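Sequence, please.
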């Protein structure tokens, strides 16, 4: 049996990404006719049309959609395997890294991280994405290089994780809020008007389950989808926001932060990445930068 031409995997990955022979040819620096012949070889090898005409464009077949879930990862794994592991010259490195994190990470750590990266590797660009859910798919398919978050069962078992810092919940109110006039009791905290945070793609934090054994029940009058929105409401009203302390440090500037009258469990924020990047020298360097910026030495 003739061994398959593994170069076709690269062509397939680009074709499925671009869904255009002309654009795929441009990315691979081939002529359109050469790219068409490559598509013909792929069709013959797989026994499937892969891309079919729909109006003026091309759309993938069901087989192509199934292949797209894995071919990108295979190609990136091969690229990482063949990339030199030693001799990294940061001054000549040109690369874009994508980091995904909840709001608050960029505000607290982004500026120092960018400055550190620019000083060592001026050709490196950092692309920050908002973390809309806990799905580890973007790490698996290579769309995200690094991610921060709490390690939970929904995260793929193959994902690597390293502790960045511990965090805990605090109460936050506007400057001049009535709660700031004395010691904040559990009764006063529970009776106040609260804004609750339900992050997109997550179940609500079990704050009320933790408060219940102490007999504290929050009076929730509003619900928002993020830390910044909750703090904006608290800053402009008498609402109380309960947020992670370290993750919202910059967002809480000028507000009154107080220790909760009931001690809640602390949690660990970790740095996450796919094992395909373990041996990548540039990726290792960036992981070190993130850990140092977040206080891990």
């Amino acid at each position: 049996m003739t061994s398959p031409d593994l170069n076709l995997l690269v062509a397939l990955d680009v074709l499925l990404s671009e869904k255009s022979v002309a654009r795929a040819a441009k990315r691979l620096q081939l002529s359109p006719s050469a790219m068409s012949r490559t598509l013909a070889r792929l069709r013959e090898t797989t026994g499937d049309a892969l891309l079919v005409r729909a109006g003026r464009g091309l759309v993938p077949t069901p087989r192509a959609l199934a292949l797209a879930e894995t071919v990108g990862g295979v190609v990136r794994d091969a690229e990482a395997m063949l990339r030199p592991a030693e001799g990294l010259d940061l001054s000549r490195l040109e690369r874009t890294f994508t980091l995904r994190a909840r709001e608050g990470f960029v505000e607290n750590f982004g500026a120092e991280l960018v400055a550190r990266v620019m000083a060592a590797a001026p050709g490196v660009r950092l692309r920050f994405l908002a973390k809309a859910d806990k799905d580890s798919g973007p790490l698996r398919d290579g769309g995200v290089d690094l991610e921060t978050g709490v390690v939970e069962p929904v995260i793929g078992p193959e994902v690597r994780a390293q502790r960045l810092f511990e965090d805990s919940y605090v109460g936050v109110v506007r400057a001049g809020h009535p709660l700031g006039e004395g010691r904040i009791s559990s009764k006063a905290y529970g009776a106040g008007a609260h804004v609750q945070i339900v992050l997109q793609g997550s179940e609500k934090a079990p704050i009320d389950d933790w408060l219940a054994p102490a007999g504290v029940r929050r009076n929730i009058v509003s619900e928002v989808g993020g830390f910044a929105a909750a703090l904006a409401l608290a800053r402009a009203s008498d609402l109380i926001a309960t947020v992670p302390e370290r993750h919202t440090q910059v967002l809480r500037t000028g507000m009154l932060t107080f220790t909760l009258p009931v001690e809640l469990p602390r949690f660990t924020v970790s740095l996450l990445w796919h094992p395909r990047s373990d041996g990548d020298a540039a990726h290792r360097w960036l992981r070190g930068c993130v850990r140092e910026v977040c206080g891990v030495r």
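The two ends are 53 Å apart (CA to CA).
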